[in-house]
Every structure is written in C-alpha cells, then in structure tokens.
Fold:
Amino acid sequence: MSYLERFARFWWSFIVGDNLPLAAGAAAAIGVTAILVDQGLNAWWLLPPTILALLGASVIRASRHTER
Amino acid sequence: MSPAYLLLATFLACAVEAVEALTIVLAAGATRGWRSTLYGVGVAGFVLAALTAILGPALTSIPIESLQVTIGTLLVLFGLQWLYKAVLRAARLKDRKDEAAAYRRQVEQAEQAAKPAGREMDWYAFTLSFKGVLLEGLEVVFIVLTFGAAQHRVGLAALAAAAAVVVVAVAGFVVQGPLARVPENALKFAVGVMLTSFGIFWVGEGVGAHWPEGDGSLPAIVAFILLGSLGIVALARPKRAEQPA
Structure:
C-alpha cells in the first residue's frame, strides 16, 4: 500500500470511522438541509431528528447483528 | 455562544484521550525505563502543539460561513462516531474499554521486546509512547481546532486541553497506575453528544438556516440529542443482559 493510500485511509477512518451508512446518511441530511434552505425553506428542524434517527437505526442494526 | 461549552467539551474530550495515552506511557515507562519514554512523550507533544499553532490561525482566517459548514459537517461525522460507539457500549452491545487490561497487555508486549545495552536510547519505549500520545492527541487537536476555530478561540480550547492533560497526568502520578476507574464511556457519551450537537448547530447556521432562538437553541439541541441517545440505549439493550447472572 502506498504512502498516499495509507494517509487517505487514516483520515477516512479518523473522520468517517467504520460505519459508512451512518456517515453517508448524516452527510445526505446536511445536503438536503442546504438544498431546502437554498429554496427558501428555513429547515432548521430537519437535522436534529434525522441525525438521531440515523443513530438509532445504526444501533438497532448492530443489536440485531449481536443477537444472532 | 458561551465559552463554557467550548471549555467543557474540549476538557472532557482531552481528558478521555489523555487517560488512554497515560495507559500506554505508564506501560512503556514502568517496563522500559522513563528516559526514552518521556522523550517520546515530549516529541509527540511538540508535534501536536506545532500542528495546533500552525493550523489554528490558518483556519480562523477562513470566512465564517464556509468554516461553519466544513467544521459543522466534520463535527457531526466525528461526533457520531464517538456517540455510536458510546451508545453501543452503554447498551452492552460492545465491550467497554478496560484500561487495566490494556495496561497489562502493553506491559507484556513491552517486556518481550529486546532492550538496549547500557544508557543507549530505547527506541521501543520511544516509539510506543510517541505513537500512543500522537494518535490519541490527534483527536484532541482535531477537537481543539474545530471548536476553537468556529468560535475564534483556538487559544482557549488549547488551554482547556492542556488543563485536562495536567489533571490526568497528576492523577496518574498519584494513583501510580492506569486510571481504570475513570467512567470512560460516560465521558465519551457526553463528548459524543456535545460534538454532534455543536456540529448540527454550526452546519445549520453555515447553510443559512436560522435557529428559532439563535445561540439559545444550542442547549435544546444538546438536550434533544442526549435524551434521544439515552432512549436508543434503553431500546437497544439486550433483554438477556438485564437478567441476573
């Protein structure tokens, strides 16, 4: 593995970690909020429950995996 | 925003990382000797301080809206990582970190490595302590820079981080061992809630959304994320874990 690859992997693991769906979902929620605000809707209410829902979904998925 | 949030979040985050770094440093020092170990700690500390000193002013020169979106997004992603793992541990879906066991593992490995003759530099001890402090410290630098830059108070955030290092180092010196009784997961849970909440607040402001109470909305976001996360822990905790062994 090249130095550049290791460097990129380190920062990926540092910021995103090992739960890609959670990170991708959060990034998508931020993107949707930005689009809605850009369209003139003050969408402050979108991020907090969406982030919590994503966290809950990730944890429930992990708990089902553990119970198997 | 009140600097109290900045101080508290940075202090707690740094304290958690310092406890983990202390375990590695103590294992290296106790088994391999303190001279090379402390060189490793010193060099890593210098690298971390230099990173903060160089990147801090550079970040604060970026326009506030761009900074809020970038830093807010990074904090949400980074904070969710902490919170996710802390929730899993609180719900007993993941093993809690055991600093005493980690210390024993590090000591065993350090004792097996070849030792240098006489007063030569012990590169094993140096590398072990350097790597431990640098890797744990990078998370602290990240938090100091993101929190500090978003409020143009990198110096204050760095001060809180330094205070946490001093407190943990003194506690380690008094206890003469790893700080196994520190409620590490509760601290990580609290830091995860704060990082995620601040990230949500800043990214919201950065994209142009207006919070109903301005800065006053932040405590409500923190309370919402905290209570929601505690609810997730209660829902996800396996039923069998509640039965007596």
